[in-house]
Amino acid sequence: MSWLLLNGKKFSVEQLAAVQISTFTEFEKTTVAFCQAWLAGQQEFPLQTSGSTGTPKKIMLRREQMEASARQTIRALHLYADMTSLVCLDTKYIAGQMMLVRSLIAGMNMVATEPSSNPLLSINNQPIDFVALVPYQLEKILNETPQLLDAVAFGIIGGATVSHSLKEKIKNSSCALYATYGMTETISHIALQRLNGMNASDFFQAFDAIHLRLDERGCLCIHADYLGDEIITNDLIEFLGPNQFRWLGRIDNVINTGGIKVIPERIENALEKVFQELKISSRFFIAGIAHKSLGAQVTLFVEGIELEKSIQENILSKASAELTKFEIPREIRFVPKFTETATGKVNRVASMA
């Protein structure tokens, strides 16, 4: 009989239907309320998108869609009953809710803990087999308690791109870690990329039920029977084989500078290595700002206090080894604190204001 461990209290799945949530925290309420609705057979679930790529909006997902998505991950990672999952993402959003769905469908036990930077610290040595994390959480765990991650069998990482430095840090972890590609509209991820171990790769492999194509812009279009209408994304990708692709960036981030189109994410990948080499831990992103002759100029936005001029010059000098002259930032701007979405992602537009 599977169970849910919540704030030190263990409830069997059968007991959850009668649990009173009035004295629970907001996270505990949303977690138990979702489980209760699912176990009662609720057929539709309202969800809000994160707002990281546009205006947040509410969408309605059908139970059968969430089941189909969950079963793909269960098959791909060979999850089974009696495993224990750690639910440490906000269960108001798709990532946290789908962890609950996967656990309930597979018959896994669940440990639910308030979202935090290092959720493995709060589980009191409870063995964990499967966890979903955002890159920030993974970074904290690797810095503080890497041995706790080694005790986990599988981990999926989503919500943001996994940086070059983070990929380097996880190479020796015995936990099998996968980057995910997906969004609320695709009902969590539709593709996985193994990040470490013997089967590590540099591309995403979509699930068998997923059919992919490029539109005339070079952006990814996704079809699956359970998703309904084809989903047209703003993600620029490169196909490598059947259902295999690399993510290049978002077309709405592309900067047209002097008639040349550059992809900010490519520049950020180069700069991430430079920041790592110079031991600069500040968050940053690339965006275009208006320029009277170029139309838009490539600009580097860095979070925190302004760096010394010599350091700024060093950043641009080292980055030029990997970038074309059109990609090298023409200016560095410093922002005391980046604006974030509700799910903790950097809101680029708001941070530039």
CATH superfamily (homologous) name of the largest domain = ANL, N-terminal domain
Structural class: alpha/beta
What is the CATH-assigned architecture of the largest domain? 3-Layer(aba) Sandwich
Largest sheet, in brief, is:
13 strands, mixed
SSE ordering: EEHHEEHEHEEHHEHEEEEEEEEEHEEHEH
Summarize this entry quickly.
The chain is of the alpha/beta class and 353 residues long. 27% of the residues lie in helices and 30% in strands.
What structural keywords apply?
353 residues, alpha/beta, Rossmann fold, GMP Synthetase, Chain A, domain 3, 2 domains, 13-stranded mixed β-sheet, 3-stranded mixed β-sheet, 27% helix, globular
List the helices and strands and how they pair.
Layout: E1 3-6, E2 9-12, H1 13-16, H2 26-39, E3 44-48, E4 58-62, H3 63-77, E5 84-87, H4 94-106, E6 109-112, E7 130-133, H5 135-144, H6 146-150, E8 154-157, H7 164-169, E9 176-183, E10 188-194, E11 204-206, E12 211-214, E13 219-223, E14 231-241, E15 244-250, E16 255-257, E17 260-262, H8 264-277, E18 284-291, E19 295-303, H9 309-319, E20 331-335, H10 348-352
Parallel strand pairs: 1-6, 5-6, 5-7, 7-8, 8-9, 19-20
Antiparallel strand pairs: 1-2, 3-4, 9-10, 10-11, 11-15, 12-13, 13-14, 14-15, 16-17, 18-19
